[in-house]
């Protein structure tokens, strides 16, 4: 498609537009729901805040069994503030993770 513009002061512009080339299909990397040990980082301003965060995370995950551990671990590591007191949970399966969050 061509687009022309004619300005009052005599400036003329013409653009030729075309569709972008298709992007190549990327190979999907399917990670199984329980991909083995995945670190979950928990932090808080105080040790009690870390324990409370762990309790809330346990409740959240227990109510949503469809969550993939690698997604939770990624979100905890990249979207949460790293406060002064921290803990890391590393477990091989869902039951171990929930027990470690107690």
Q: End-to-end span in angstroms?
A: 62 Å
> At the first level of CATH, what is the class of the domain at 38-100?
Alpha Beta
CATH topology value of the domain at 38-100: Alpha-Beta Plaits
- The CATH architecture category of the domain at 38-100 equals 2-Layer Sandwich
What does the main sheet amount to? 2 strands, antiparallel
Poorly predicted tracts of residues: none
Total number of beta strands: 4
- The structure class reads alpha+beta
**How are helices and strands ordered from N to C?**
EEEHHEH
In short:
The chain has a domain at 38-100: Alpha-Beta Plaits (2-Layer Sandwich). 34% of the residues lie in helices and 24% in strands.
Task: Walk me through this protein's architecture.
The chain has 102 residues and is α+β, with helices and mostly antiparallel strands. It has a domain at 38-100: 2-Layer Sandwich (Alpha-Beta Plaits). The chain is 34% helix and 24% strand. It has 3 helices and 4 strands, in the order βββααβα. It has helices spanning 47-63, 69-79, 94-100; strands spanning 2-6, 12-16, 38-44, 85-91. The strands form 2 sheets. It has a two-stranded antiparallel ribbon. A two-stranded antiparallel sheet has the order 3-4. The longest helix is centred in the middle third of the chain and has 17 residues, at 47-63. The protein is elongated and about 75 Å long.
